[in-house]
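task queued by scheduler; priority normal; single chain, no ligands, no partner chains; default sampling; output format set to structure tokens
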Amino acid sequence: MQSAAERAELWVGTAVLAVAAGFLIWAGSGSGFGRGLGGDGYELRAAFPSVDGIDVGTDVRVAGVKVGKVTGIDLNPQTYLAEARLRIPAEIQMPSDSAALIQSDGLLGGAYIELQPGGAPDNLAPGDEIEDVQGAVSLLSLMMKFVDAQAGGDQK
């Protein structure tokens, strides 16, 4: 027979597990877990000169709205470009002249890939490559250019 203390511990433990499961479900649904990764979408490719800040699982956005994820990044040994694979839902059809840009969420924010739809009448097919790309811009290199320009301007 269980004592009252043992029953109380059992109920508290059950409640803690239920709350933990609820948080996992909430976190998964809020982050879009499963959206853009399942078999219901299609994959596009984009070759960037630099993918700083981008990794597998990074958001893919259209007009600022998260629509998919980066599913893989590989280095092409012939071109030395970073080839990213992007999975987006089947209901989002991108025109063939669309662009892919690596954007930042601010100075200290993370990076994401922004897809900018073009105006072509035909759409990209699964597995197609987005030709118009813009790689990541290094904040450090921009700051160094600014400092160099300021230092050069003071000596005139």
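post-processing summary
- The chain has a mean pLDDT of 83.
- Residues 1-30 form one domain.
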